[in-house]
Design goal:
The protein has about 325 residues and is an alpha/beta fold. The protein has helices at about 20, 55-65, 85-105, 125-135, 155-165, 190-210, 210-215, 230-245, 270-280, 305, 315-330; strands at about 5-10, 30, 35-40, 45-50, 70-75, 110-115, 140-145, 170-175, 220-225, 265, 285. It is an enzyme of class 4 (lyase).
């Protein structure tokens, strides 16, 4: 049975002029440099160089075949979320990119599984767009791990998560909009340290903010990049919950009681780190992910899973495809 990669991204090969279609920006735009290369631009600044495997389904399929991947979950690139924009504009942007993502995935509907984006800053608009997207052919939704200073325990975000639980829509949480500083702007430190920290913080918000106590267990939610640094520091979190209940969260139970309520992907690159995830969360909560097609992703996809000498056959199969089939309700 082929593997399922739950963490990949898409960038369409161009989109309408968002300022003309939506309103004043600033908005991302695509500078196409050749048939195989382009640059995502933010105003006059270069944001990220991308290749045609971001938009060319046939190239994606060739690379999937090379890595033994049967199915990809294809999610938005977070730079398009537009959470800082007025909600009506962000809703129009979400509709544009969601429809374009369906076009990218259309050549292989049995292998490319599109996930939508939503205007998360407005729960009503977010619920409306996820319903529209699912009806149009999307199979789930990717959200950023925060909206400005509002984390995943914000009442509006919780309303959206409850809606997804009620509708049976899987949610993939991706870090984005990491803090900037002179110390973090060197060596891609925002990506090397900021992304793991952001993801860790939002899992804590789900637990200590009481989200898992309020949202039904039917919510299928997964976090990118192995859950960031959460697994390594669970013991510190548990200790704080027991020793300082006066300041640490409002959760009804200790943090370790919620480990079966969320999943993480396997993009930790090293078998030792993967073993920590399995030891901490259980093999049933880890799904194959790659961050394809970006350079900081894992290639070949699943390398750490395949190099592990500790996983037994059942654990390896669960991580490579079994858990994802359950999460996606395939």
């Amino acid at each position: 049975m082929g593997s399922i990669d739950v963490h990949t991204h898409v960038v369409p090969n161009g989109w309408p002029d968002l300022e003309a279609r939506v309103g004043p920006g600033p908005w991302p735009w695509l500078r196409v440099d050749s048939e195989r290369e382009a640059m995502i631009m933010l105003g006059s600044s270069e944001f990220r160089r991308i290749g045609s495997n971001c938009w060319d389904a046939h190239e994606r399929l060739r690379e999937m075949d090379a890595d033994g991947i049967d199915v990809q979950v294809v999610s938005p690139t977070p730079v398009f979320f537009s959470y800082g924009q007025p909600a009506d504009r962000a809703a129009r942007v979400a509709r544009i990119f969601n429809d374009l993502a369906l076009e990218v995935c259309a050549p292989a509907p049995d292998r490319l599984v599109p996930f939508a984006q939503v205007p998360l800053q407005d729960p009503d608009a977010a619920c409306a767009e996820v319903d529209r997207a699912i009806a149009s052919g999307h199979r789930g939704v990717e959200i950023g791990n925060h909206v400005g200073d509002r984390d995943l325990d914000d009442e509006g975000v919780v309303t959206f998560l409850q809606h997804c639980a009620d509708r049976g829509v899987p949610v993939f949480v991706h870090p984005w909009d990491m803090a900037e500083s002179p110390r973090l702007d060197r060596w891609m430190a925002r990506w090397l340290t900021g992304m793991p920290a952001e993801t860790h913080l939002s899992i804590i918000a789900m637990i200590l903010g009481g989200v898992f106590d309020r949202v039904p267990p039917t919510l299928r939610i997964a976090f990118a990049h192995g859950g960031g640094s959460f697994a390594f520091w669970l013991g510190r979190l548990e200790n704080a919950w027991h020793r300082r209940p006066d300041v640490v969260g409002v959760s009804e139970r200790p943090p370790s009681a919620y480990l079966d309520r969320f999943s993480v992907d396997s993009v930790v690159f090293d078998p030792t780190a993967l073993h920590l995830l399995v030891d901490t969360l259980g093999a049933s909560q880890v799904m194959l992910g790659s961050d394809y097609p970006y350079p900081l992703g894992e290639r070949p996809v699943g390398d750490a899973v395949h190099r592990s000498t500790r996983l037994d056959d059942a654990e390896r199969a669960a991580i490579l495809h079994g858990n994802a089939r359950r999460w996606l309700a395939l």
